[in-house]
Design goal:
It is built from 8 helices and 19 strands. The protein has 379 residues and is α+β, with helices and mostly antiparallel strands.
Length: 379
Amino acid sequence: MRVPKISLSIAAFILLVFGCQRAATAYRLRHDGVLLPPTAADNTSQTVSIAIKRARHETQKTTDCDLSGELLSLRWVGSAAQVSFHSQSFFTPPDDSHKQGGGMYVDRLIAISKFRAELVERQANGCLSEIESERLLRAIVENLPLPPAIAYFLELGSYDITGYIDLTRDFRMQVTSPIYRPGSQLSANNLLGYETANYVFVGESSEGRTRMRLESASEMPIGGTPFEKQMVHNELRSLKTPAYFRLLFMTEEGTSNRLTRAVFLSAREQNKLAQAVPRHGTAPDAFCASLSISELTCMVFPKNFGVSPELRIRVNHKDVFVPVGGMLQEALSLPNEADPPSTLRVLRPFHGHLIPIKFDRPSRDILKLVLLPGDQITF
């Protein structure tokens, strides 16, 4: 009779432990906008420390790999990353007349951008590989209690601060350009219509390099009906081999309406992109010629081109693209005052698995969730 008792005890223990883990495996969206991972307590007012095991392949010979910042600190213990998050308020009070960035403290965004930039420097110094850096940022985001917008900026960066966005396999680039009569002057009288081309970035290995590919295109003739097509008039050219891609934004100096120009960069090595920094006073049209970086492709989009980076997510098992920093409400195409669907379910990756986000269903808080790569929505 002893064996069955032991077996029952073991079975009860396994059921208790794994049953509790299953019940706790969900993100929780608080009313104050903080998204709590399954491992976080409700009290997030103090410094939070997390350990990320096997964050890099092996212990590196380079010793200067740690990072110390006001918001985030990183210390290496062999292949494990010890991350400390100094919890702070990210958003200004509603009655604060000095609020910037849509009510977000700009110095917090600068601190995040500084952490990301220093991590790229450590990567270039051999502290970790490019793909390990990408995975580390995702692991930090998954394990820290953060407002969803801050999680987005930490993982993917803020081009409002840095002036650029890296186009990874989670993005597509939408380019809208005018079509003119062949051989004619580029004037309104010769305008035939507009075409929209969607480019995706396809990964071919475990590294961060991708290939750019034209996914779809459409044309809108003046006074006509839009139609889809396979070939485009203004097709983009890029490296024939897998590369890193970046969209850089520059302001046209001397223009009264502050025209923003887009610059498309690609290189085999990520640090080449980091070297392509506009100097003060450099005009966008002269930027590419001002660079002396080998194995870097640079192209400035014409003034009459519209360029929009978009993030890929899944809605009802189909790919949907939202603007950079887009929210759940935009993915569902809901008007501002609409309530979330009663059957709404939102899944987000956590340690390699999709888990649900729990939220207060009577409220509309979930509609303001800033989306991340890998998010899946059903309703």
